[in-house]
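Mods, move this if it's the wrong board.
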Amino acid sequence: MQAAPAWQADDPLAATPSPSRPARQPGELPAAVAAALWRGDQLGSPVSAVSPSGFAALDAQLPGGGWPGHAVTEILSAQSGTLEWRLLGPLLRQVCAAGRSVVAVGPPRQPHLPGLRFEGITERHLVWVQADTASERLWSAEQLVKANACGALIAWLPQARPEQVRRLQVLASSCEGPVFLCRPATAAHESSAAPLRLLARVGVDWELLVDVFKRKGPPLETTLRLPSVPGGLQAILTPRLQKPSTLLPRDPAPQTAPSPFSREAGHALVSAPAAGARRHRLAH
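Not the wrong board. Structure tokens:
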């Protein structure tokens, strides 16, 4: 037998047994890796702070339970200029209550201050950027996102191209407040780098009908119905007017409108079972 080398005999770590690692089952991931892993059939966990939308049904379907920060959210609508304020009103009220500003870039209609006051949005915290051209609106939005200068940004960019939305998404990663891009409903057929996309329209009974057709998670197959009576009307509506659908003639054979985003091109394909067979639907 040979004597152990002197350097090994003098090393106190040489005789110390290495700590044993906890045994894991086959296929089990380390805790840190499992926490960061997102599976496509589950809602993703937020990578940054989120802000409650003010609608419990909507929060239940948004990753993290609210509007995401450090990201772009697209709101698509055929009634641009009015519906967005009703959908975002509860969030904007929280932003104003915290003393931060709400910046609106290029709204198609002049903001109606008396109506916004009912939603808790005051002119003291509202900044209206009147930009007439598409390039001015895009430039203004980019500068505001870069500067992280507002509590919430709403920009109307009906003519934004996919590469411009991608650039805004990259810039928004360093912006704490939520960034909303308002675009027409026809943009649902286009791919977008925005991680969250919604299609919204007005219902008959003072409600908003919202389809979440892109999110970090499986596609939402149902339409959300969010109660949203415009500010100031709740106190004067009679019981019958609170349900206008009861006053309309019933259609014996209602027609089902086709999905407005059935042809949308995207980055990931998600499969979901339907009617006894599996059908594919684009998630982006």
